[in-house]
Fold:
Amino acid sequence: MPIRNIAVGRPEEATRPDALKAAFAEFISTLIFVFAGEGSGMAFNKLTGNGAPTPAGLVAASLAHAFALFVAVSVGANISGGHVNPAVTFGAFVGGNITLLRGILYWIAQLLGSTAACLLLKFSTSGMTTSAFALSSGVTVWNAFVFEIVMTFGLVYTVYATAIDPKRGDLGTIAPIAIGFIVGANILAGGAFDGASMNPAVSFGPALVSWTWANHWVYWAGPLIGGGLAGLVYEFFFITHTHTHDQLPSTDY
Structure:
């Protein structure tokens, strides 16, 4: 049972060198991901003179996020697992695959990485706005809430199936590609409605730097619920193993 495997962790875990290295890796991976993803949107605004969103812009955003996440997960996988997303970390926690204290370290690093990326973008673009996620016309907060739950469920389920499941075998080698693909596909599905965040850190950085908090709770609640559900479902129905809370081997997620 996943609930039985949940652990808080020991206080000294927060200062262990391996935990700090893992958190720093999450900071760098999230910075890489947000800089490319958010930067692609800013580049679109630059080229179109802040014009209206277009299908081509949506495809470009999907590709930029898919490629950047593939790289961000790949470069962090052997150090931290390459979560790059508080919802992924939360899903791993409720499934008993990471302790609470290590998860909090990851969250802090991910939020700082996203914020640093947006500050660098704002500086390097001479003050352009780091646009916060927002609802499109005619989309309610509850529409967006469901979108974020379902899309993030798909993302974290993919993470479990390709990276966390001990039975994944050779499938683990394509985990970063699969994770990037599901994010790109979900952006094509939900981007026109609520921006398709699936990642509280990705939403937090632009919101903080631009100080735009309208409906921001949706981009936390939806992904965390979706990620938590995915972790519980996959761990409960598909994973059968005796779990310990030691750090995952470097070859694992």
About this structure: Residues 243-253 have pLDDT under 50 and may be disordered.
